[in-house]
Amino acid sequence: MPSHSAADPADDHAAEPIAPGVRRVRIPMPPGTGLPFSNAYLIEDADGRVHVIDPGSATPEAHETLKAALGGSPVASIVLTHLHADHSGGAAQLAAETGASVLVHERERAALGLIAAGLPAPDLEAWGVPAERRPELLGAAAVPTGPAAQLDAVITGVLTDGDVLALPGRRLRVVGTPGHTGGHLCLHDEEAGLLITGDHVLPTINSGLGLGGPTESNPIADYLESLDRVARLDRGGLRALPGHEDPFTGLRERCSALAAHHLRRADEVAAHPGGTVWEVARTLTWTGGWDGLAGFTLLSALQQTAQHREFVSRRA
Ligand SMILES: [Zn+2]
Fold this sequence. Notes:
This protein is an alpha/beta fold and about 325 residues long. The chain has one domain: Ribonuclease Z/Hydroxyacylglutathione hydrolase-like (Metallo-beta-lactamase, Chain A). The chain has helices at about 60-70, 85-90, 90-100, 105-115, 135-140, 145-155, 220-230, 250-270, 275-285, 295-315, and strands at about 15-20, 20-30, 35-45, 50-55, 75-80, 100-105, 155-160, 165, 170-175, 185-190, 195-200, 240. The radius of gyration is 20 Å and the shape is globular.
């Protein structure tokens, strides 16, 4: 075991107490993702068994960090806020080693099935994408089906809105929060004043929307409703435990700021009713600028523009 000197880099990934029975582990992200860590939350029940929320990526480094933080404690369950690999990737190995159950929202499980079967390519021509940019976007849109199939295979049960995980000594209520993905969930511990928010609400980052496969409803409309849903849980002092960055308070205000951001973006899109998705996207403001977008970030920008156009047309 590494010593606990301040200079020890392993300390960066040590389990940090958040509240009685709740610890946060910063799980290293794979290189090139632009984010240093995702957060796993370890919740110990009254019987001494641990429930892991979002084990993190499927890399050896992530797995070792989590195992070191668990320190041999029995793992009873793994709950995933959503299907993205930086939160869910480590679930299969952890479940195999511990026999823990693996739970996701029922809508997320349905999405995993679609992704595992192979999603259709976006209609880039309809979006007005110039021919020379299409190969790059088709490459980015080709989501590998293997990880989704692997995750789907280890899921032992599904959750739905309002379900309560009645752990010995603690109750966690499932709050369905579609938007970032169609089956994203948050977990509310009302007694402890905690809300595990996954990627639904992060303290400074604006999460992308509609990033979990196709949904019947519009991800922007879903997201705005989901922001309302969690903002209403904050009657003052609720601590948000996000999937990236650090725990924070002021959830209600953060939700308002995120809603305002998306409504501004919708107004920007509404100001260009005639153009193609490509033409409209070029006129919008993007972090790092339009010219900095390529591959996956460009695809994501176009998807979000298309979602906003649909949202605006439904709103009209
Ligand atoms: Zn995510």
